[in-house]
Design brief:
Blueprint (H helix, E strand, L loop, with lengths): L9 H37 L4 E6 L2 E6 H21 L5 E5 L4 E9 L4 H10 L1 E4 L10 E5 L8 H5 L14 E6 L2 E14 L14 E8 L6 E9 L1
Parallel strand pairs: 4-5, 6-9
Antiparallel strand pairs: 1-2, 3-4, 3-7, 5-6, 7-8, 8-10, 9-10
Length: about 230
Amino acid sequence: MGRSGIIYDSRKHARKLLAYQATKGLVGGVISYFIVGAILLYFPIVFAPKTKTANFAGTNTFVTDEYLNTEASETALVQKETEALKISSQFSLSIPKIGAATNIVANVDTNNEDEYFNALKEGVAHAKGTFFPGQGKTIYLFAHSTDSPLNIVAYNAVFYQLAKLDSGDKITVYFANKKYVYQMSDKKVVGANEVAWLVRDFGGEKLILQTCTPPGTTWKRLLVFADLV
């Protein structure tokens, strides 16, 4: 018998204690379930790799940091290459076999003699109305040739050895900090007035280099064709 005459029932107390422990365990289990569920649901979102958003052609596209780092690395390599060649990474040309490395002047009007003569003083001219590397169409470049090594510098005759190129030779064009490598596939001698090549659709990306031939004359045109590798 306990104090105040109250009889202490140990069995009843034990049942209450057991019920309390069971309820406590159940509540704890429910709380733990929700905590674990919340972690599984939100952990991938909170700790997922961060992304940046760019807009290409009006479409929202997610671009990862890994992609951006790769782009930056490629740009750095192109800039290093062009710096070594002393040409621009924005638009330039390199043909190792004939030792040609020069900048390209974009959108030169082939019908404006003053315009293209001024452009050819700076480097190779890109024909206005033709396309740029990476656009999947015809890219048309032209430059002087000469019959005398003494005139190479005077006329900036970048293409004076163009005829020495053979099938399989590589031609590199740098455009907008990207590198495009082309492989020569064909060459032709055509009339000076045969301008249809400027607008011909080859069904894919085609690089055409043009110069006068025989060197030092304006009688005919030598065309070198190359495909994107």
